[in-house]
Amino acid sequence: MPQTLSTSNMVTPGSLSPPPTEPTDGEQARQPLLEGAPSSASLETLIQHLVPTADYYPEKAYIFTFLLSSRLFIEPQELLARVCHLCIEQQQLDKPVLDKARVRKFGPKLLQLLAEWTETFPRDFQEESTIGHLKDVVGLIAPCDEAYWKRMQQLLQALHQRLTALGQGPESLVGANKPISYRTKPPASIHRELLGICSDPYTLAQQLTHMELERLRHIGPEEFVQAFVNKDPLASTKPRFSDKTNNLEAYVKWFNRLCYLVATEICMPAKKKQRAQVIEFFIDVARECFNIGNFNSLMAIISGMNMSPVSRLKKTWAKVKTAKFFILEHQMDPTGNFCNYRTALRGAAHRSLTAHSSREKIVIPFFSLLIKDIYFLNEGCANCLPNGHVNFEKFLELAKQIGEFITWKQVECPFEQDPSITHYLYTAPIFSEDGLYLASYESESPENQTEKERWKSLRSSILGKT
């Protein structure tokens, strides 16, 4: 369950004054919606506070929080239509004669709001109808200043570039690269061991970091909230992915692939000396990932080495210097709700804030735990209160967590990509769980009756199909 919500780190006290409009639903007049304000408001009032006027512009924290959470209550296209309608109505933009002095004060604020919206949530503008709303409202203020229309064209051009870039993401792992069954160990022409491609742990850690940041960059903040909307009613403890959360799904699949790739690379070699060498290599890679701040790859590597087909290789592990591995395991220990990891994450986040180089700014969180934290924050607090008001305080905390993630994912990777290494990491065959067990048993014979029976069953079900 989430802790008591607080907005003290989100906004500056007294930093937002609402627009001069009448409150609704019995709310007190002129109550600000951030620090020191009521923790809830009606949806209509929240929409009203998003709309700029000649003398008012909503605080950036409010814009992000409301645009992020509003999709739980109203489609982005409809929200934009209502915002544009309110702008036209309040500024009397549909009148034959405009108050040019007032419009010249209002125009830049409207364009600023549209710029922030299209920059942070570009996928909200994939439908042609939403672009039409933008053009219509800006077309009404354009006669007052030619610069408005020019600014609008620049905004649309930047939006198009963002949407194009989002459509050209890294090669998808959704529904692809499924684990293969163990038949015979893949020939060298199909499966080249990773150490033959990259034998330097620091280089591999850098390439993993490059891949992580590339994948993170394509995850929109709205995907976290959209996962709540598509929650499977038959599985109340987890979200259900959809086409609006496909980047989230792809990133989770990438983590799983890396786990199985690590386990496959360890179980592949025929000699225990080689297997021990691979284990020690991955321990060094994991340590470098920790030093970089790449906690997601770190956890994937540790998880891969802790899979049962790998952990049972006692003769192999006897040849491994495990002290460094135990230290890394301690850092990612789930005890106390991952207390050690969260301490390390806060340290990396602090380093990022005071960094003088892109290298020091890198923070890649353990993604599955981030999703879990956000999900249980959503589950632990109601979206709406009994009086029908939106629980805005909840969404301020949600925005705080997701906003921090956005800052981290925007860091430019300082490491140059090595296509041969990344291609291998994306495409090298990986064994299924049964395949890993069979490879493990062939590397080190079953030790008890349970393992012997499983080995016999696997050989019959997998090898018998060839």
UniProtKB/TrEMBL annotation:
<feature type="region of interest" description="Disordered">
    <location>
        <begin position="443"/>
        <end position="466"/>
    </location>
</feature>
<dbReference type="Pfam" id="PF00618">
    <property type="entry name" value="RasGEF_N"/>
</dbReference>
<dbReference type="GO" id="GO:0005085">
    <property type="term" value="F:guanyl-nucleotide exchange factor activity"/>
</dbReference>
<dbReference type="InterPro" id="IPR000651">
    <property type="entry name" value="Ras-like_Gua-exchang_fac_N"/>
</dbReference>
<dbReference type="InterPro" id="IPR036964">
    <property type="entry name" value="RASGEF_cat_dom_sf"/>
</dbReference>
<keyword id="KW-0344">Guanine-nucleotide releasing factor</keyword>
<feature type="domain" description="Ras-GEF">
    <location>
        <begin position="200"/>
        <end position="446"/>
    </location>
</feature>
<feature type="compositionally biased region" description="Polar residues">
    <location>
        <begin position="1"/>
        <end position="15"/>
    </location>
</feature>
<feature type="region of interest" description="Disordered">
    <location>
        <begin position="1"/>
        <end position="30"/>
    </location>
</feature>
<dbReference type="InterPro" id="IPR008937">
    <property type="entry name" value="Ras-like_GEF"/>
</dbReference>
<dbReference type="InterPro" id="IPR001895">
    <property type="entry name" value="RASGEF_cat_dom"/>
</dbReference>
<protein>
    <submittedName>
        <fullName>RasGEF domain family member 1C</fullName>
    </submittedName>
</protein>
<dbReference type="Pfam" id="PF00617">
    <property type="entry name" value="RasGEF"/>
</dbReference>
<dbReference type="GO" id="GO:0005886">
    <property type="term" value="C:plasma membrane"/>
</dbReference>
<dbReference type="InterPro" id="IPR019804">
    <property type="entry name" value="Ras_G-nucl-exch_fac_CS"/>
</dbReference>
<dbReference type="GO" id="GO:0007265">
    <property type="term" value="P:Ras protein signal transduction"/>
</dbReference>
<dbReference type="InterPro" id="IPR023578">
    <property type="entry name" value="Ras_GEF_dom_sf"/>
</dbReference>
<feature type="domain" description="N-terminal Ras-GEF">
    <location>
        <begin position="34"/>
        <end position="164"/>
    </location>
</feature>
